[in-house]
Amino acid sequence: MQKNIVVIEGDGIGPEVTRQAVKVLNAVAEQGGHEFNYHYCLMGACAIDKTGTPLPDETIEAALNSDAILFGAIGHPKYDNDPTAKVRPEQGLLKLRKSLQLFANIRPVTTYPSLQHLSPLKGKILEDVNFIIFRELTGGIYFGKKELNAEGTQASDECIYSREEIERIAHLAFKQAQQRRKKLTLVDKANVLETSRLWRKVVQDIAKQYPDVKVDFLFVDNAAMQIILNPKQFDVILTENMFGDIISDEASVISGSLGLLPSASIGKGSALFEPIHGSYPQATGKDIANPLGSILSAAMLLDHFGLRTEANKVREAANWTLQNGFVTKDIDPINFYFTSTIGELISDYVSGKTPGDIH
Ligand code: IPM
Ligand code: MN
């Protein structure tokens, strides 16, 4: 197959980890006789530096015309510490999500037996944890009207959801639940928020079309507690934009390192694949960041292209590195391997080459 992939390396460790994912995609392409063409585009702080805007039109254009987008990370400390900055790297990502109508962000959470000691949770709680978060990505408080009064003493952020916005992601989440353990949990704050009451109503209505899926409802404060107390109770979690942002970071530490988790954002047009970690500025250029979040995002991209066997091979390769101690510094601060080495090991594994002596 022939596919056009837009690559947005972004800021901080984004370029380093994304290059490993591209290596792995190249190995897959070579093995299967596929042709992946890459088009590199700017977004984030690096785009502000070069063009004055976090998301140049050219990037939107290329993304709209692509088969998929592979994205690294976004953000720079010089903006985080300046609440008055008018132009911010994150605006680029938000605008890209909106322009491509990437309304569903999908974040799987699994555990790896060899990494259990790194999880802040203990033994039994970790067994059989396997759930997936469906986070709404183009609505809610992130995209409502934002205001600051002239005196700078009062601010507001509006939170709006329409039935249609809830329905389209709810259908995706129910369909996913049907292919898994057939349980869906809606996380909301329906005891306080009108938007949450609409989410509950719409999900109850849609549930009638999926009678084989068991639905339950949790308030977000309780959900935050349950994710730590008893994470194996979850199968598919469905939630709105900001709650999803918060609980997915919380859930990410269960597996032992934030650096491991991939995500897919899908919608009407091209889909986007990115690790859930940020730009990790302190590690930039040191070749120490964990590339697995990015490589496993590339595996989700392969799934999206219908290359399921290849995607599974990449996941198998990633597991193989973890089981054999080929890990980055976040996982083993003493005996660690470099980002680029892990990328090579995984691409070699995918190519069927016996990994050489790298000790
Ligand atoms: C994420 C990030 C983004 C978000 C930021 C960078 C705007 O935290 O993808 O989870 O809040 O959605
Ligand atoms: Mn986040």
UniProtKB/TrEMBL annotation:
GO terms for biological process: L-leucine biosynthetic process. Substrate binds at R97, R107, R135, D221. GO terms for cellular component: cytosol. It catalyses: (2R,3S)-3-isopropylmalate + NAD(+) = 4-methyl-2-oxopentanoate + CO2 + NADH. Its cofactor is Mn(2+); Mg(2+). One of its GO terms (molecular function) is magnesium ion binding. Homodimer. This is 3-isopropylmalate dehydrogenase.
